[in-house]
Amino acid sequence: MSRTISMKYALDWTTVGIYLFLVFFGWLNIYGASYDFDQSSIFDFSQRAGKQFIWILTGFGLAGAILLIDSRLYSFFSYLFYVAILLLLIVTIFVAADVKGSRSWLEIGPVSFQPAELAKTATALALAKFMSSYNYKLKTWKDLIPLGVIVFIPFALIILQQETGSALVFLAFMLMFYREGMKGLVLLLVVLAVVLFVVAIGFSQTFIQVDRGTVGMVMAMFIILLIQFCYAFFFNRHRKEALNLALGAGFIAVASYIVNIWVKVNYDYIAMGTVILSTVYWIIIEMFNRYKKYFLLAVISFGSLLFCFSADYIFNEVLEPHQQVRIKVLLNMDEDLAGAGYNVNQSKIAIGSGGFLGKGFLNGTQTKLKYVPEQDTDFIFCTVGEEWGFVGSSAVLLLYLWLLFRIVQIAERQRDAFNRIYGYCVASIFFFHLAINVGMVLGIMPVIGIPLPFLSYGGSSLWSFTILLFILLRLDAARRTGS
Amino acid sequence: MINDKLRNRGTVITIIMAVVVVIYILRLFSLQIVETKYKRFADSNAFLNKTIYPPRGLIYDRNDSLLVYNKPAYDITFINREIHGLDTATFCSDLNITLDAFKEKMKEVKDRDKNPGYSSFTPQVFMTQLDIRDIANIQQSMYKYPGFYIQTRTLREYRYNAGAHVLGSIGEVSPKMIEKDDYYKRGDFAGRDGIEYTYEKQLRGEKGVEIILRDARGRLKGRYENGDKDIAPKAGKNLKLTLDIQIQLLAEQLLAGKVGSVVAIEPKTGEILALVSNPTFNPSLLVGRERSKNYNLLVNDPTKPLMNRATQAQYSPGSTFKPFQALFGLQLGGITEGTRFACNGPSSWPIKCTHHHGSPVSLLNAIEQSCNPYFWNTFRSILEKDGYGDKNVNFKNNYDKWREAVMAFGFGQKFEDTDIYQQSRGNIPSEKFYDKYFGKTGWRANTIRSLSIGQGEVLVTPLQLANGLAAIANRGYYITPHLNKSDSMLTHKHKTSIDAKYFAIVDEGMWRVNEFGTGRAYKIPGVSSCGKTGTVQNNRGKDHALYVGYAPRENPKIAIAVVVENSGFGSTWAAPIASLLMEQYILHKIERIELLNRISTSRTNANVTDY
């Protein structure tokens, strides 16, 4: 049987269909976003929609080529590919021209592209290769170290290119690590760190009373105590110990409130002191009752305390004002609508004005009049929200969810660990891009400039996402064709 | 599979993905469906709503002669947020202002104390009411000044330098008006007084809106949906006044150099033919950028040119009140047609007579000769007809009846159902007033004898006097005097309490005044008329000269009241003015050119300025 014929049956056509739909829909929206009053045709190659059309067609060619290559070659050449990309990244740092402060674009003739985009694929392949080698198992903390190195090198190189957004995408591999055996606690700790950061910094300018402590620090400490209480009361059913903790903390709160009437009290230090006392309390309980359940809690609590304290300190004492502003905008601390908050505010206006059914294709006033910056690249979802409304934008999100489910499903049905790990890498990368990009456009995530897969304008990103996805489809097809 | 026990982690991962997507969909729901403010923000973001001011209604006189029309004027406005890269020097030279004036103006607009509504996001008026010549240069190069706009509006232009008090003016709306009527926005214009105020809603029309798309840099990108969503302005409705501009002009000419007023009414319809107050001013003085400067000039003039004396000044009517007094006497039973009273001339008591005539004097002669003692006796007979009674009850009763009869002619109160901008009440003192002043039983006919000859506490406005004459001309009713020529006013008919038959006697008496008495010097050629002069003492110098009358006697077409303050005899100053006006109105020409010239050029008050 010739390979092309067998591919017709072996290829996962559902995924291909979703891919085609998203790419086509993205193309329409790029046309809508750059639509002007003296509008040219959607095929005008001097315009972005026309250029995207070329990227799409060449992307299809690329996809076809990927499907033709023997699937074993991807595993075989993965380290080589990884090393080559690392070299390319290094070269880029020195060669690339400065584009809006970032040195990540390589120009080859009329075409310019970002090696950082390909680095995701290369790293995914390298991770899959390393983790599927049969003497490797992700069991302990130590097993994470080589993985960390594989991820960190391209991450650092991309940071050096001033492409923080692209670099952060490498955090997505955490999700794959979790699937492959990393402790769930690590994921939870990451979530806890984010929550504590948002609370402690977000409310660090909100004072309970001038010079007497901030809402942020007190709330962060309260969250730590609440986790301790819930862990003891619900998870371990040590109700007496949990209630003692609650009573003690309550007593400290009331006492300090009363003392504050006469003597100036700093609630920040009271709250931190309470957490330190609670840590000591859990260690004592561990020692006297031999529960062996609270040592880790005490460590995490104390670690969280240090984290909050240092985050607060760094934010207020170390960061430059312009760096503070970025975080403030992200945490809604500062509604500087004309300045740093402008993008997100305009983006919310554009989406919000779309209403239920949207304004209709090419009828969006906000995007058409260039109120939203980067509206055909990072903020393409604005155009979707404005012109297609709640119905259209929700449908696009659900389509992405379907694609993600499909990729996870493909990954899980692989017999080969390499294929499965690679599949989870693809799912993690797509998910990270979707979550960050759409979250940013909706104003609930920081403004991190990364594209929305398949929808955003740009050859590098479209090509790299196409490569990422079609390698997986090729690997999956091999499961049925046997090569 | 190698990793089977970790398989459920794939499920956890898909749940995390689903949760994130669901959160985003909820967020979309809240942004797009729950919140409505984004739609509004989007509109104000992308749409520049340009107000299109409708042309204000034109104003015509009763003969369709155009009085007030519009001329275009231009405002320069700016949206501060949208200004960028302004070449101030070129801008100033295009607008023909100095750099300092520019800075000063900008400072003023941005000063929130002076301009509390300032916002860098909304259009602010930079310069207002510019002429087409002022903006000729900048209009060509407006594209060089993003953030600046030209706003077209209309200003009033007057064909005649006349009728300033009647027509009124338009001015920028006050914060109070904006609060009361949300049609107005800051910087809009509205009628501030006169007809412009009364008929503001009719004249102003409806503002339109042109929706222009604007991009994030403030550049205009054309009309929204090809102008389908624009609202065309609705032009104001035209207004036809009852005024006869020829009479109005002539009256103003005749009053030149004098302080006084003229009110002429068509008796059958209550239509005001002329309403003149002097000193007056050119109505175009209160238009445009010079408005406030000129307003200050006028408001500080001691002769009070802004005051409409025709409706706001109150005078004792003096002898012009006598025809009315005769009617009250006849109706209330104080006298009959044949009643005669003795007159001892200047030695009469308690009121002396200033004229010389036979005695005893008849009613007709008393009117003709303006005999004070006759009307004092008439007044006393009305009041004392039933004696004084217990605690003067009968006397007071008759006083009330007399007062009611006076007020039925429109005296002592404002006309409520009219479109005249500002009026004074005048005064016909009430019983309570005298009770308070003299004590409940402390006043008798003799106490208030001045009222008999129109002096003392009785006060009337020229408008009320002219209206009273219209009621006599109509033999017993008047239509509320008004300025808008509309038949609907005919229903505003007010009957007096006087029987029609008594008017014939008074009519005869007033005809005699003009034929043989104090008005005989100024007969209208070929037209018989009725009238009455009055010379009213006052505490500010010379007597006020008054004249009331109507003509033609057989079929009155015009009733008139003339007041010339501090000039002397009514027969000398007021009667000729009235006579010339009636001549012009009835005959449409004036034969007595010499009289016309003499009156037009005589000045009775050196302080009257010609604005």
Approximate helicity band of chain A: 55-70%
Structural class of chain B: alpha+beta
How many strands, what sense, and barrel or not for the largest sheet of chain B? 5 strands, mixed
**Rg of chain A, Cα atoms, Å:** 26 Å
- Kindly state the number of beta strands of chain B: 19
Task: Work out the number of β strands of chain A.
Answer: 2
What is the SS-derived class of chain A? mainly alpha
Q: If helices are DSSP runs of H or I spanning 4 or more residues, what is the number of helices of chain A? A: 20
Entry keywords:
heterodimer; A: 483 residues; mainly alpha; two-stranded antiparallel ribbon; 1% strand; B: 611 residues; alpha+beta; five-stranded mixed beta sheet; five-stranded antiparallel beta sheet; 19 strands; elongated
Give a written overview of the molecule.
- The complex is a heterodimer of chains A (483) and B (611).
- Chain A has 483 residues and is mainly α.
- Chain A is 70% helix and 1% strand.
- A two-stranded antiparallel sheet of chain A has the order 1-2.
- Chain A starts with a helix and ends with a helix.
- Chain B is an alpha+beta fold and 611 residues long.
- Chain B is elongated, with a radius of gyration of 34 Å.
- Chain B contains 21 helices and 19 strands.
- Chain B has helices spanning 7-34, 37-46, 88-95, 99-110, 132-140, 164-167, 175-180, 194-198, 200-204, 245-254, 291-299, 309-312, 322-332, 363-369, 372-384, 393-407, 431-438, 462-473, 500-515, 570-587, 593-601; strands at residues 47-52, 59-60, 66-78, 124-130, 148-158, 170-172, 189-191, 208-214, 220-223, 239-240, 260-266, 271-278, 340-341, 361-362, 477-479, 493-495, 530-536, 544-551, 558-564.
